[in-house]
Amino acid sequence: MENVVFTTNNLWMMICTALVFIMHLGFSLLEIGLTRAKNTINILFKNVMILIIGILTYTFVGFSLMYPGADFAGGLFGFANFGLLLPVDGLSPAYADGHYTYYTDFLFQAMFAATAATIVSGAVAERIKLSTFLIFSTIYVGIIYPIAGMWKWGGGFLDELGFYDFAGSTLVHSVGGWAAVISVALLGPRIGKFKDGKISVIQGHSIPLSTVGAFLLWFGWFGFNGGSVLSADPGVTSLVLVTTCISAAAGGLGAFLVSYLRYRDNDLSMILNGVLGGLVGITAGADLMGITDAFLIGLIAGAIIVFSVGALDRMKLDDPVGAISVHLSCGIWGTLAVGIFGSMAGWSQILNQLIGIGAIGLFCVTSSFIILFTLRKTIGLRVTEREEIEGLDTHEHGTTAYTALSVEEG
Amino acid sequence: MENVVFTTNNLWMMICTALVFIMHLGFSLLEIGLTRAKNTINILFKNVMILIIGILTYTFVGFSLMYPGADFAGGLFGFANFGLLLPVDGLSPAYADGHYTYYTDFLFQAMFAATAATIVSGAVAERIKLSTFLIFSTIYVGIIYPIAGMWKWGGGFLDELGFYDFAGSTLVHSVGGWAAVISVALLGPRIGKFKDGKISVIQGHSIPLSTVGAFLLWFGWFGFNGGSVLSADPGVTSLVLVTTCISAAAGGLGAFLVSYLRYRDNDLSMILNGVLGGLVGITAGADLMGITDAFLIGLIAGAIIVFSVGALDRMKLDDPVGAISVHLSCGIWGTLAVGIFGSMAGWSQILNQLIGIGAIGLFCVTSSFIILFTLRKTIGLRVTEREEIEGLDTHEHGTTAYTALSVEEG
Amino acid sequence: MENVVFTTNNLWMMICTALVFIMHLGFSLLEIGLTRAKNTINILFKNVMILIIGILTYTFVGFSLMYPGADFAGGLFGFANFGLLLPVDGLSPAYADGHYTYYTDFLFQAMFAATAATIVSGAVAERIKLSTFLIFSTIYVGIIYPIAGMWKWGGGFLDELGFYDFAGSTLVHSVGGWAAVISVALLGPRIGKFKDGKISVIQGHSIPLSTVGAFLLWFGWFGFNGGSVLSADPGVTSLVLVTTCISAAAGGLGAFLVSYLRYRDNDLSMILNGVLGGLVGITAGADLMGITDAFLIGLIAGAIIVFSVGALDRMKLDDPVGAISVHLSCGIWGTLAVGIFGSMAGWSQILNQLIGIGAIGLFCVTSSFIILFTLRKTIGLRVTEREEIEGLDTHEHGTTAYTALSVEEG
Fold first, then answer.
1. N or C: which terminus of chain A carries fewer CB neighbours within 10 A?
2. pTM across the whole model
3. Where does the chain cross the membrane (chains A, B, C) (predicted)?
4. Mind listing the domains of chain C with CATH numbers?
């Protein structure tokens, strides 16, 4: 009996793992679609390598940093051991209350890990040096992300304080978003983005690919949030999927309404980012919200997207794909929403949420800055002007993503 | 024990929900691939908005219209309440015989709802006004679809009469297909489609995207039909997946053979539509058929596709993506097939099926006509000639889907 | 109780079936991306038809050839009956120890069957005659693949000898790979590939599509290997997913490192093939390996990819997509790895593995040669020079995959 429940729970978690996996394709396509054809291979290369690096660093050190064990409860830092060490009962219902095996636990978390660095990838697109990005990502996904995650999900001090983050509005999305802000600030904008005090639109090269990306991210979020229940409990998992989908839809609606009323615009990429904002927004409290809560959280997230994109432009922070607005602005919003809506709402929870947002933010900003500043002083952050103008594909990869393009340039 | 079965059933239904969700990406890609690059954003915009609108209207009114409760059994119309109202036992095995929770029930049905309007999207592509389409879709998906669905799945009069439609050859696909016919008739053909009495081929801009779309639709159909079992019952679900896949394959084969023999043509888009026709065809009776039945239903559906596409052309009904042939022609065929093949075959069942097809058809044709005629008299159905020639992307969305295109036009 | 376990097991197998299904889209996109735009429809047509043919031949003869029943244990060949014949207990836990129903069994295996022929499709791309390919594939997937599979999975002589192949490094991937080698050798290289003793790169037309393909293949491999456990056993399935993902990541890393160190190249398509090589490599022993084993198997597979691609070029075997390196080279490596790493390692197992590799290789090479040689002598293997230069899409399908292309040519 115990074994059957265990099997079903574990099965659900494995499927959710596969769904989170495919989000990496979603990110990749969203990013290349919203950027120029001449940098396509470069962006895909980064995203594929991050997934590879993310899985491998999480195998060797990340999982042990994030879940160091009961001895480090309430703490700041812990480390279990190098590599994966199957516990005696790791494949039996004795592990994790029969919710999944040790291996499923690892793999689900590993798929999450790579996400944080992937978020950065979009924001720094079209101008960062490949080697610099790979080094930064390896450190960020291998060390920074798991330490931040440990503070809550590994039983660290934020967990003890009462901070709540169901599936990672802060622990995943803001962790990526903070690094994106710092990267963008240190890198500077793409050539031509801000000239003579004016903001110019650098159009992406394929809206269809971006749309596929957004759809795959929503699809993957069934696993991202659904799997964060950490069991197949019918009531909680089904509620989570419903709040997730309603918030996503409301996010799209909010972005549509605000961008239409403000700019008389039927802007598809804004709606897609609105959907993603709705997804990020519900992520911190998907298991706590009712239907109306989810609708409002999403609707506001969609509106935030439109305002955030505009504000970043005015601050001359050039984020080609809107990653900061989606993952940081809506990540903060979603984390706060846990204190405003749903079953945990209240002033004391708002305070807890603010502490969590602040602690994680401080840690991520500081560590990103140190890593990136060091890289700037050593190997440099940015490709040369000529490389940027001609495209990173030709210079970093010696080829082009599409043959038609190479013909035109030939 | 009861709880474990419940958890497993609910898990299956949640996965099927995710699979039906991804069909919306399938429709989007199928449609843009088979149409011209200059209308790509417009089509994607419509499909994304339909999904958003579909989920939200279904949340607020649709689910209550479609499943109004036992009091309305045998009736024409009923309404439970605005929004979602979790029943006392909505998350326990007491709900729906332990097949799923109230939330899973809602979300699975919500993903279905948006499908009907999406079907229309393809048929009216490249010439309908965006605002008109959005208003039509909101009414159609929010009110018409759930009322029609209630007649059978909500326990209405067609259910009482003995009409059978397992997963919606009529209730989903024909409901969309009838609206597509009326829309196309009222809209008229695209400029250049029928000139000097000749039918000209307006080539789609990306066969790869259409192919991805068709594959994703087949993939999603694992959930569309598999989930319509409404439980994870091993015997029925596995039979349904087998009949579904065999009919899909046979549909592709049928379209290939007929189009090759008739036109000496190796036409990929015809085969893809043949596969989709096979899927629509098996949908009404996927749980009733044997292997040979499924093969024949699919094979005939594939042949119907080729003839239907030709017939619509001769009737000067311009359906850019073949949506009417796939969803209406094969939807009717599949519904009739329940009386011809499999375990319910017989003259009295054929009669029942005809009554269902006729009743739903009459309701959908009438309501589509009233809505669209009203819209034509008020805000208009169609974009201007100039907008149509230059492309809806530039005029309705102020941009283009691909940058190469904008360069050419610059 | 027995029924619940049965339902859960069967559910897992059905999901894995859907995942293996989507691999066919993965193969299609990988192949078209790595080849030229003018042959895109042709490649998609082949892949769609193979899936259709694969499912239908497996229904009518393949399944019965591959699993002929206990009477043929230890044998070379057997045949149960035409079509599918539901056993008395085929839908109850009495079938297959309660791991799945007869129908699930069939459909999971049917999705595997089409894979072998699909592998060939990539290697022969851009020059094979469509009719020739369809005839070859029908025979290969309908007769050769199931007979080879019977030798191990159907209880044949290789099973008796102790040959081990968990999910088909040899039985699926090498079976396709051997046919690819023979086809390529008999077909000859594409025009322009080897001129004046030099190897020229014929660039693919869309790296994004190839990347989507590789991601979908990895995604599908969750089902390919995960489903090959043939139950939802939590310990084994979760181990298999972990070894699979670690080997895939290590394969990408291996290809990256070797191609960077050897050529100073950041070659995305090499990394993607490295990932696929890692997946093929782990497939024979995914259930036997530890974490380090999986890492090393993948890392070596990634390195093998780089060397194999170079070696085939030097042997003037023109494989446009690297199918032989991925499926044959890494298929052999993965099969041998069962004797080198993990819980079955040992000299006697290496010998068993070599016998299996040799027996399957001999059978596939011989039968491919006979079929293809006969086709060459009758209808011919290769399109005309003019057709090849102008593109197979125009000549075999009368259209082009992209309208921009047709405009250029108009």
1. C
2. 0.98
3. 12-32, 44-67, 106-125, 132-154, 166-187, 207-224, 236-258, 270-288, 294-312, 324-347, 353-375
4. 2-195+221-409 (1.10.3430.10)
